[in-house]
Amino acid sequence: MSKIYLGTNLKMFKGYQETLEYIKRVNEITQNISSDIQVFVIPSFLTISEAIEKTQQKNCWIGSQNMASIAEGAYTGEISPKQLKEIGVTINELGHSERRQFFGETDQELAKKVKASVDFKMRPLLCVGENALEKDSNASSATVLRQLQIGLAKLTVEELKNVMIAYEPVWAIGENGVPAEPTYVEEIHQVMRDCLMTLAGEIGQEIPLLYGGSVNLANYQELLSKKNVDGLFIGRTAWEIEKFKEIILFANKNYV
Ligand code: 13P
What we know:
Layout: E1 4-9, H1 16-30, E2 37-42, H2 45-53, E3 60-64, H3 81-86, E4 91-94, H4 97-103, H5 107-119, E5 123-128, H6 132-136, H7 140-151, E6 164-167, H8 182-200, H9 203-206, E7 209-211, H10 220-224, E8 231-234, H11 236-239, H12 241-254
Parallel strand pairs: 1-2, 1-8, 2-3, 3-4, 4-5, 5-6, 6-7, 7-8
Helix pairs in contact: 1-2, 1-12, 5-7, 7-8
Bound molecules: 1,3-dihydroxyacetonephosphate.
1,3-dihydroxyacetonephosphate binds at residues 9, 96, 168, 173-174, 177, 212-215, 233-237.
């Protein structure tokens, strides 16, 4: 049985104290779970340092929501991989659709960030996913494959071992999102798996593929039951700690 990854992206929600309180609760929940369940929380940059200090368990990682691709330099307002590594960040969320949509991040730029994350011995969590127009035009697989292939292009086969992927169709994310059907998710995850195996052989089999986009208490069990779904990347549902707890404890009971 391979690991199950359960993470949450706090986006620009929760204040400083609220985030630390939330992380304290996540710590309590993860205290007695199997090392086969890997939980992670990705809060705003402001709280990362203190969140890491307060996080004792190896099975709860703290990550960043973005990162510059360059170690240091005159890039006002950016946060570098070197700085994130220094404070103990484990995982870098890269290319979330909100970054692509509102901040113009391109596949080419993301490829550099992915490489920088690996170079600084962190784990890139590359987010991919088609928008509604691409889905309606039957271009979902083509879009996701392009994002994957360009996003990972700078890595050697050996380096691909460190990568994690989150499939987050844009139309499924957030308040107006429609959760993707688990069978549809599995279809796209199979396409991604085939691509990763072409790129990296057997290593491609080991790269965790997470699903995100309106994961809720009604659909998480079926999503987790799919062969190529190695975890979930959750927004709103996980921000309510009792709901995140239910998902974590379910996985701990059924997948270890
Ligand atoms: P929701 O679960 O709120 O749709 O958000 C998913 C997401 O964007 C995680 O990165």
